[in-house]
Amino acid sequence: MKKVIMIAGPTAVGKTELSIRLAKRINGEIISADSVQIYKSLTIGSAKPTLSEKCGVPHHMLDFLEPSASFSVSDYAHMARKTIEDILSRGKTPIVVGGTGLYFNALLYDMDFGSAPEDVDYRRHLEHVSNDKGSDYLYQILIEKDPDTANKIHPNNIRRVIRALEVIHITGKTMGDFAKDPVPVSEYDPILFGLTRSRMKLYGRINKRVDLMLEAGLIDEVKNLKKDGIDDSCQSMQGIGYKEVLEYLDDKYDFDTMKSILKQSSRRYAKRQMTWFRRYKEIQWLDLDAYASLDDIIDRILSTL
């Protein structure tokens, strides 16, 4: 079986630097598993690696989608698996890196709810319901039927809400079943590592990252997106950092309140990420605080391989 290295972990834990150092050691190429870094122009708020940070390592599934576009887990699975095949065909090692749990599911398991059969009549029925009773009405139904998926969809993203309800209607299963009843992928051998730190150190890194993002021009980045017609109805703007700044620009908060909420939202997101990744029985955890250097961690990864 051809090996695919996967590195998961919460925001700001240190995935980017470690994965790039690892890729240089083994002649690997990186595939992003981040649902915000896929978008063009969403650079600062998504902590997208810069050209210099990439150190010449090829990166895929990064910075390719217009901010106005929607992108499903099924879309990600299709593109990322083709990328994995391409990297393997060239004798290199794919390294999947990110913090979006559903993207890891799409590459670890062969349960693709995104490609479930369609029921056009039922979808139109839900569209009529939304027009009559409002998008929040359908969102509340999704919360009752599949709270995990609802937590990852903005209430205004009615297309995704309707699709989630349609999949439940057709298959009798929810996206939550994706993690509960997995069928391991068969075309390659995924080796999953999870990065962690003490809560105090992780939260300190998150708070510092928010400060650096704001200093680097996150507010101007969001202003430019707004000028291009990108608002909170777009899937891209549901990422943490972007929705908070949008609310600040709409005078919902003052600057200090926005910064505090952004840090709090980021810490809560990190907690949800850790809860998600702990579901994987096959994950091998690496406590970054327990190693003297990144090279020691990489040696540990390579010894496992």
Structure description:
The protein has two domains: 3-111 and 182-304, P-loop containing nucleotide triphosphate hydrolases (Rossmann fold); 113-178, Histone, subunit A (Orthogonal Bundle), CATH 1.10.20.140. Helices cover 52% and strands 10% of the residues. It contains 14 helices and six strands. Strands 3-2-4-1-5-6 form a six-stranded parallel sheet, with helices on both faces. Helix 5 (120-133) crosses helix 6 (135-145) and helix 10 packs across helix 13. Monomer.
CATH domain topology of the largest domain: Rossmann fold
- Shape assignment: globular
Which CATH C-level class of the largest domain is it?
Alpha Beta
Q: Report the end-to-end length measured between terminal Cα atoms.
A: 12 Å
Lateral arrangement of strands in the main beta sheet: 3-2-4-1-5-6
Number of strands: 6
User: What would CATH call the architecture of the largest domain?
Assistant: 3-Layer(aba) Sandwich
Q: How much is the average pLDDT?
A: 91
The gyration radius over C-alpha positions equals: 20 Å
Strand content: 5-15%
Largest sheet properties: 6 strands, parallel
For CATH, the homologous superfamily of the largest domain is named as P-loop containing nucleotide triphosphate hydrolases
Region (Interaction with substrate tRNA): 34-37
InterPro entries: Dimethylallyltransferase, IPT, P-loop_NTPase
Enzyme class: transferase
Family: Belongs to the IPP transferase family.
